[in-house]
Design brief:
The complex is a heterodimer. Chain A is mostly helical. Helices cover about 65% and strands about 0% of the residues of chain A. Chain A is globular, with a radius of gyration of 14 Å. Chain B has a single domain, classed as 2-Layer Sandwich (Double Stranded RNA Binding Domain), CATH 3.30.160. In chain B, strands 1, 2, 3, 4, 5, 6, 7, 8 and 9 form a 9-stranded mixed sheet that branches. Chain B is an alpha/beta fold. The radius of gyration of chain B is 19 Å and the shape is globular. Helices cover about 35% and strands about 25% of the residues of chain B. The chains are: A mainly alpha, B alpha/beta. Chains A and B meet through α4, α6 and α7 of A and α1, β2 and α3 of B.
Chain lengths: ~130, ~200
């Protein structure tokens, strides 16, 4: 495990909290959960999630983790501006969050495709698609 | 488990329906021309059968601050003619595509003429241009296909490659098509940079 990556998903109290706030289904609440999820799986800057990390997440932590990735892609500080409909891209990715989560599951379950950067590549493919649809 | 199965069935069904609709309205996946060197890497893009894409799984876009845009190539391998469209019009098209890319990417990157560390190199070619059979207006083209790749300007490592086609014999406003391609290129690179600033692949993975 590279330095600076803390995987601490097995926290029942936090998981219960995640369940509770996700049930409310509000976007702002999802934002809170994704921040929590980032803390849970320790996605520190300059650190990609790999299949090992993904496999350690509980089911109810996976979609919030995907929301964290979406947030990074559309609201991150890496770029100066996106130039197209940022909110539309976010909505497109959010609509697919469950599908993305299953795609990660499928890829990580197949040892032939579970390369270290498979999750990163799959997510960028979804970004590519959503930019093309907005 | 049942819910997940039902969800997957629904997703699969919607993809099939959407795929069918898109096949009717847009083009089939473009044939590659040879401008891009490594064809095998390119795969059909999700939910858009007109595109072939490759995204390097190891690529970290976060450090790139500059882009070097090579002149748009009118791709005519082995002296084969690119199009029946007159040469001056083709050259105008290539300049127009170059300008669209430059205008959009300048809002995300510093445009440079020489490679420095942290520079992307954009290679771009018009590989197919056909006149519209239903419009004589030069603004409208029947088919226009591009191939593009983004490399690390220093190492030459391929980061992204793509092929796309517009029109498929239906008149397409070529200026708008170029602006759309350029805006999407900027948006994708911008999102990749932002994503990698948080989730960058690292050597230790």
């Amino acid at each position: 495990m590279p330095q600076g990556c803390r995987i601490v998903p097995h926290n029942a109290a936090v998981a219960e909290f995640l369940d509770e706030v996700l049930d409310k289904g509000e976007r702002s609440v999802k934002r809170t959960t994704l921040l929590l999820a980032l803390v849970l799986f320790g996605a520190s800057p300059a650190r990609a999630m790999n299949c090992q990390d993904w496999g350690r997440l509980y089911e109810n932590e996976k979609v919030p983790a995907v929301y964290g990735m979406i947030d990074a892609a559309v609201a991150g500080s890496g770029g100066r501006s996106m130039g197209v409909n940022r909110a539309g891209i976010a909505r497109c990715l959010e609509r697919r969050a469950q599908e993305i989560s299953y795609a990660f599951d499928d890829t990580c379950a197949d040892s032939r495709t579970a390369r270290m950067q498979a999750i990163n590549q799959i997510f960028k493919n979804y970004i590519w698609t959503c930019v093309g649809q907005t | 488990m049942m819910a997940r199965r039902a969800y997957r069935t629904a997703v699969l069904t919607s993809l099939l329906v959407l795929g069918a609709c898109q096949t009717a309205g847009t083009a089939a996946a473009p044939e590659l021309s040879g401008f891009l060197s490594d064809h095998e890497q390119l795969q059909p893009g999700r939910a858009d059968q007109a595109q072939l894409i490759y995204i390097n799984p190891e690529a970290n876009f976060a450090p790139y601050e500059r882009v070097l845009i090579e002149p748009v190539v009118l791709w005519e391998p082995d002296g084969e003619k690119l199009s029946d469209v007159p040469r001056p019009e083709l050259e105008q098209l290539s300049r127009s595509l170059q300008e669209s890319m430059r205008r959009e990417l300048a809002q995300e990157f510093d445009i440079v003429e020489d490679p420095e560390p942290g520079t992307l190199r954009l290679r771009l070619a018009l590989v197919d241009v056909e006149r519209s059979s239903t419009s004589s207006d030069a603004v409208f083209i029947g088919t226009v296909s591009i191939e593009v790749e983004v490399l690390d300007a220093s190492s030459g490592e391929r980061l992204v490659a793509a092929a796309d086609l517009r029109g498929n014999h239906e008149p397409v406003d070529v200026g708008k098509a170029f602006d759309t391609w350029a805006a999407r290129a900027r948006a994708r690179l911008s999102a990749f940079r932002a994503f990698d600033a948080v989730h960058a692949p690292s050597d230790g993975d």
